[in-house]
Automatic annotation (TrEMBL):
Pfam families: DUF460 (PF04312). Keywords: Coiled coil. Residues 403-416 have a biased composition (Polar residues). InterPro entries: DUF460. This is DUF460 domain-containing protein. Residues 432-518 form a coiled coil. The lineage of its organism: Archaea, Methanobacteriati, Methanobacteriota, Stenosarchaea group, Methanomicrobia.
Amino acid sequence: MTSNAIYGIDVARGSPRSGQVPRYAVAILKDGSVYRHSMLKMHRIFRMIKDDHPMIIAVDNIYELAKDKKELIHFLERLPSGVKLVQVTGGLKQVSLPFLAHKYDISINPRDPGDEAEACARLAEMGVGVEVSLFEDKTKIKVSRARSLGRGGWSQNRYRRKVHGAVKVKSREIESILKEASKERNFNYTSKVVKGFGGYVRCEFTVNARKCDVPIHSSSGSDVQVNVRSLVRDKIQYIPLKSKERKSTIVGVDPGTTVGLSILSLEGDVLHCASYRGISHDEVVKLISEYGKPAIVATDVYPMPAAVEKIRRSFSAVSYSPGGPIPSEEKIELAKPHGYSNDHERDSLSAAISAYKKYRQLFLKIESKSPPYMDIDKIKVEVIKGSSIEEAINSLKEKKQPTKAQKSVAETSDSLSGGIDDETYRKMTEKLKRRDLEIAELQEYVKELIDQRRSRDSTISNLESKIRQMRETERIKLQKEKEISIRNKKIANLKKDIKRLNNRLHDSKAQVKRLKSIKKMESRGEGIPVKVISSFSREAILNVADIYGLKKGDVVYFQDPSGGSASTAGLLADYSPTALIVPAGISYAAKEVFFEKSIPVLEDLEIQKEGDFAVVSPEVLKNAIENWFGKADHWKKEKEEEKLKSLVDEYRSERRRGIT
């Protein structure tokens, strides 16, 4: 089980890319305490990780742990499930560790690996950095033979059958486990089987879930081996952590019954991309707030829909919408590099990326002009809202100006460091007294303001209490009206259902009456049962065969005989019906098939039909069949005469050519 421990790791000596075996400094944040270790080899660190099962392993550069992508994959595969590898300095756009330490008020000596390891751990605890992801949310399970069968001898086939049978049994056992787990954990899977003599050569399952969520583990036996591995991405993906401070974001929204929502950082990193069916406005606002405060709310249509405008107003953000509709090809081009599951996610993601691209050059200009250690995101937000870069920088500088007393102390410190005389010291003392007097006056003023604030807070609290009472009264009233409206609608719907069911009952009674009449005729010998097929199609024939059965000697009636092909006629002829009744003529190709199979096709024969049931008079059917066979003999003689005539004509033609 994953603990709340966070490991910070920094290389102390050597490097994975050098010949010297690297040693590391490790800082462990656990239960509010810091535990430091120095000069540890990697195998020792893995033993500690296995025992502690930490939440995060934080580094300032992932290539201090592995020299290339292959080694990094091996490192991640060795980590226990649920442990995240975090690079605190960022993903593709990295910043230095000292810069981050200064920004978040963490004391650090850049020459001390222990300090750097602790800084990494503390930054990761604050939600700074990105998770390094090399595996997709897909898992491959391969079940195969544990060894080669070889050339073999007299018992080779028996041995092959035994091994392939074992692979088949193991595959079915795994499929049964996956079927149960897919229902509980809501994932799906596909399988691919290569069959062999007596069973399976191998079976591969592709599961749409992370390896840690799949209840199957790699194993090996005498005949069968199971290999479980995560699918590796083409390139490293950096997933930003959820920071504990409210960062500024760019939000793309695709409104509707299913809401598409995409959230980007001001650096253009995708923080979140998903779609939600039936989600309310409040839930959308709450979800967006979890990732920060939106500076821009964007949509892919113009003008901005009312639902998106409502979300924008909730955060007092700047709106963005294109001048016209974005073509689908452009949306795909914008969103495809980041990945999406449906059109809603694609539209919201393309809207957010389009907004980021509009401001990207301005953001780069801000980053180049901003002084070191200033909050660049705040400057970007001020500029987005309409301020110039200089105005935004100056505004933030003023907020961070030191107090008068601090300035005085700083000036005194600077002067003392350079050496002063008595006159200068006297002037400075007087200046300090004046500053102290000003401070005392300001403190009195602050007390007055505090008293005023308390009075106002009391008034506000009373007013808010009254508002809550009024809202509660109004809410109860609206709830009552809503409940009455819902019940009235329900009653109306139930009345409609009763009326509809009464009509169906009346129709059913009439149908039962007619079916009883047909059944009586059949039992008295006044009618022969006929199986009704709605259309001359493969699906309709197979449907009747599945439900009622088609067998030799049945009489079949086509409601719509048009469109029947030779293959469809052949399908019906295979059931060997006694006769086929049609309301009109059928295609020539179908008629030829039935003629060859000696199945009478009877047109315009009077029948009594009710749904999928019908009867025909035995006398009428017998006469029609005899009449058809009489015509069929005549057609056969004509066909034979035509064939004989064709042969004679062909012979004469050959004779003439021979004589000539």
